[in-house]
């Protein structure tokens, strides 16, 4: 499952020789690529048009508790299997951990979960956007108003403000600073093939709701991942309490591998290590040793096939049932 602002394309953009989806297929596995609600491949609704704000009134909670279990059930039914291996990046890990901490029946459907750049704890996040959209930020009120309540489509001015110093430096590709994915997640051309950058920009961002972004901002100030915070009055109506309930990571009783890196703006090592301490069944904790390896590099780095994917595929082979 792809990450924040991404789509299934992300697992394919490095081509047949290097993309994880192709490598898994070549290894003999049946590969299913999910698309989170609101991505460019998941914008149909029985009654709401994508241009209407009501279409975008969803958070990570709806993705985790409604969409993801439906996808898992569909894959298992279609493939006539009892369990599957789940590979998630970024938000794809958030949705998984929220689901399996809340619905015990889905723990039995997972052979193992591979989490790349897992985003659950956000207290040490370095992304300027996540810091600015957190409720304690002095920028919160203005940014909250600017972003609105529909699709996450920040203006060019907002993107450049978020980018800060990075957008003032001389970088190889001027268009990078107009792409919100890079300024949110961080960017270092040294770890990517130069020709791949314009390909990535053509496919990203692939869509997200503003609530998804705001829920991560809320997590920056919170002790852990919680359901979406609507404010005290609505929280009381929906949840029966002032604060939204927390997703309990000690309930994720599923074999997990955690892959993380030092330079990740969104999944800080300290936050990943805290997640590791709470998850009950971590089989592999792997910190990528490659220098300058950041959040998006798990899908786009020239080093990912050898450093990350090879390890992942070997783990699946050792566990295949």
TrEMBL record:
Keyword GTP-binding: no
Xref: InterPro entries: AB_hydrolase_1 (IPR000073), AB_hydrolase_fold (IPR029058)
Hydrolase found in the keyword field: yes
Domain (AB hydrolase-1): residue spans on this chain: 2-118
Record's keyword terms, sorted: Glycoprotein, Hydrolase, Lipid degradation, Lipid metabolism, Signal
Pfam families in UniProt: Abhydrolase_1
GO biological process, one term: lipid catabolic process
MF-aspect GO terms: hydrolase activity
Family: Belongs to the AB hydrolase superfamily. Lipase family.
Name of the molecule in the record: Yolk polypeptide 2
Species the sequence originates in: Danaus plexippus plexippus
